[in-house]
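A.,

Following up on our hallway conversation. Structure tokens first:
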């Protein structure tokens, strides 16, 4: 019996065109850091280098540590002294990136309905952002981060999608088994990999990402309306 539901965030609870989101995010980050001597191209390259390090993480250290290790190799140790500037960016400037995201009231309704029915909820978003940025995006979707028993962020997690160990780590932390869990997401590679572990899955197609053009007919799938009906059947 399913008693725990894992929700992806970007492109799932928070509708978005990922390319538009990233472009706006980088534009605002570069504007914030330029007065502190950060060349825009080098800054973006540094963020991608840090992201690549997190994606390869084996769980021995938090993603946050690997990000800043990779980032400081590009800019030197001085970057660590500028961390408060990055923190301020996420608290203030990053909030305007909300305008590059969509909103679907059904996402809020579905999560609230699942919570009301007693399901444990996990925010299983790829933990490549700090908590302040993750919680902000949850609120942009009209939700409260405290609705979730766990929100994966780069501070509290040492794996990333699509590594199956990311999902195994969640199961260990919440004390659950694969067959008790449903993973809902929009990315075929990152989210549907949970099926290989024995989890139930649902592929949300509103903002579908299928970079490798895999056959998606094997997954329960559909738009927000279909997801709402699917979740209702879980309640029955």
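Then the amino acids I'd put at each of the 236 positions:
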């Amino acid at each position: 019996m399913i008693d725990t539901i894992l929700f992806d965030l970007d492109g799932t609870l928070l509708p978005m065109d990922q390319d538009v989101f990233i472009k706006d995010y980088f534009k605002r980050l570069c504007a914030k850091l330029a007065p502190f001597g950060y060349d825009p191209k080098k800054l973006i390259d540094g963020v991608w280098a840090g992201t690549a390090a997190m994606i390869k993480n084996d769980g021995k250290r938090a993603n946050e540590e690997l990000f800043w290790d990779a980032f400081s190799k590009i800019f030197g140790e001085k970057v660590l002294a500028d961390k408060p500037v990055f923190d301020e960016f996420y608290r203030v400037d990053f909030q305007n990136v909300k305008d590059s995201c969509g909103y679907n009231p059904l996402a809020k309704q579905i999560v609230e309905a699942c919570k009301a029915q007693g399901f444990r909820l996990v925010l299983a978003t790829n933990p490549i952002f700090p908590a302040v940025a993750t919680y902000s995006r949850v609120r942009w979707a009209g939700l409260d981060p405290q609705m979730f028993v766990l929100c994966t962020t780069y501070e509290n997690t040492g794996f990333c999608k699509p590594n199956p160990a990311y999902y195994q780590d969640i199961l260990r932390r919440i004390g659950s088994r694969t067959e008790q869990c449903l993973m809902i997401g929009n990315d075929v590679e990152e989210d549907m990999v949970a099926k290989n572990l024995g989890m139930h899955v649902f592929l949300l197609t509103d903002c579908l990402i299928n970079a490798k053009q895999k056959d998606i007919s094997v997954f329960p799938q559909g738009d927000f309306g279909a997801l709402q009906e699917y979740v209702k059947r879980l309640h029955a």
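The domain at 4-16+102-235 is CATH 3.40.50.1000 (Rossmann fold). Curious whether your intuition agrees with the design.

B.
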